[in-house]
Amino acid sequence: MPKKNLLLVFLAFLIFFGVALAQSTSGLEGSITIGPVMGGPVRQGVADSQPLAETEFVVKQGERVVTSFRTDKDGHFKVPLEPGHYSVTLKERRAIGHYGPFEVDVSKAEMKKVQWKCDSGMR
C-alpha cells in the first residue's frame, strides 16, 4: 500500500475514534445558585439569589465518593461521570443552610444539564 493511502487510512481511523470518544462523553454540567442573599421580604427588582461561587461539592454513588468539583466564579461547573445514579452535596458541612443532596441520573453519551438552588438559611 503506498504511503499516501496508508496516511489516509490512519487519518480516517483517528477521525472515527475521535468522534466516537466525543459522542461517548457523559457527565454533569450546570450552575448552582444560593438564596435568599438578604434577610427580610423579597423586593421587586432586587435579586434574591446569586451564583454559589468557588464552592466545592462531592459526587457520590451510594456511600462511595466518586469525585468532586468546584464551581467557578459564576457558579458553573462541568464534571465527567460514567452513566449512573448520583447524589451531589456540599463537600464541607455548614451550620446553616441546605446544599443538597441533589439526586441526578446520568445517561450514556449525555452531558446532563442541571440548575440547582441552595438555601442559605437566611430569613
Descriptive notes:
The chain has 123 residues and is α+β, with helices and mostly antiparallel strands. The protein has one helix at 3-23, and strands at residues 27-35, 50-51, 56-61, 64-70, 76-80, 84-90, 102-106, 111-119. The strands form 2 sheets. Strands 1, 2, 5 and 8 form a 4-stranded mixed beta sheet that branches. A 4-stranded antiparallel beta sheet has the order 4-3-6-7, with no helix packed on it. The longest helix is centred in the first third of the chain and has 21 residues, at 3-23. The radius of gyration is 21 Å and the shape is elongated.
> Treating each run of at least 4 consecutive H or I residues as one helix, how many helices?
1
Query: How many β-strand stretches?
Result: 8
* N to C succession of SSEs: HEEEEEEEE
Largest sheet: 4 strands, mixed
Secondary structure layout plus pairing:
Blueprint: H1 3-23, E1 27-35, E2 50-51, E3 56-61, E4 64-70, E5 76-80, E6 84-90, E7 102-106, E8 111-119
Tags for this entry?
4-stranded antiparallel β-sheet, 123 residues, single chain, alpha+beta, 4-stranded mixed β-sheet
